[in-house]
Amino acid sequence: MKRSTLSVLSFATVLCLSTAALSADKMPNLKPGFNTATGTVQAKNTGNAIAGKSVLTIKCAAMHGGSCPDPTPAQMADYTLPGYADMGAINVPKVGPSKTFSHKIKFFNDLNFAPGKYIFTVCVDAGKTVRESNENDNCKRFSMVKKSAPKRPHKLKPAQ
Q1: Using an 8 Å Cβ cutoff, are 56 and 43 in contact?
Q2: Is the dihedral of CA 40, 46, 49, 55 positive or negative?
Q3: pLDDT in tens, the chain (160 residues)
Q4: pTM higher than 0.70, yes or no?
Q5: Of 99, 93, 155, 120, nearest to 39 (Cα)?
Q6: Rg of the chain (C-alpha set)
């Protein structure tokens, strides 16, 4: 009697593990991307199912003791969503398997970054509305180093 109960339990365990593996294979998995040269953020779906609508957030931190440049309220109007204070927020549409949603932040190239290092934290599915195969890879940090403008050498006027 013990032996058959053990066999049934073993079979049930294997069945549960197999079902979990299969369902994880048929789920979306969103990962963030950010091109600091162009100001383009991405939500990449590396999974095998459509990812539903979600929110992507971006937050800047200056590493040199200064601060990130502040966009104007007009610039932030398209990047402000309730529940996402002190960061940019972008609505992301459904993203198909192996597809990428890209969005260029309209005002990014107009920002005046002082020389120094900046860290941008980009999170996809910030509201945790999409059930994914991996919920632990939704945020990533991207760095940008802004160098000071090269100094031009002084041109000496020839003596007359």
Answers
A1: yes
A2: negative
A3: 455 444 444 444 444 444 444 467 899 999 999 999 999 999 999 999 999 999 999 999 999 788 999 999 999 999 999 999 999 999 999 999 999 999 999 999 999 999 999 999 999 999 999 999 999 999 999 999 999 866 666 565 666 6
A4: yes
A5: 120
A6: 24
